[in-house]
Amino acid sequence: MAQARISAKANEGRFCRSSSMADRSSRLLESLDQLELRVEALREAATAVEQEKEVLLEMIHSIQNSQDMRQISDGEREELNLTANRLMGRTLTVEVSVETIRNPQQQESLKQATKVIDEVVSKFLDDLGNAKSHLMSLYSACSSEVPAGPVDQKFQSIVIGCALEDQKKIKRRLETLLRNIENSDRAIKLLEHSKGAASKTLLQNTESKFN
Known about the structure:
Layout: H1 2-64, H2 67-70, H3 74-92, H4 104-121, H5 128-142, H6 153-160, H7 164-210
Helix pairs in contact: 1-3, 4-6, 4-7, 5-7
């Protein structure tokens, strides 16, 4: 009887310890789950800051190269460029880096996708129109919506092999390049229009002198 009571107490102690360990393990797991949510939120916030930095630099650069900047006095342009350079310098002081975890296959896919885009960019000066069409087909390959134009199927298969975060970055880079081309086209057209208007005015003034 005494031995039975001792065995019962020993078993009860083991049960309490097992129950306590299970509770502790459950609490630790719950804490880690909550921390995982916060880690993902941190990465998303850092990525948002990274994107905002890119947008700000692009906007500052766009202002510096805008047609309006060419149509003001040299003194005003110099003053505005100083302000723009100051803002760009302050923006560049913000350092944010979100590393993407990739397996070897994803690393190789990213390398191939980057190479394709870089090759198109290198042809900008030679044939801007063709480069723009090519970029559009690359961008369509990254879109989840039904594309309005042709899709580069080979590039699409490469992008699918990239990590999800890299897919988003590739799409953002293509969007930025297309915007830059659009801005360049607009600036060239405005410049040609200004030259045409100036030539017409000069011709009219010349004719009026002889009339």
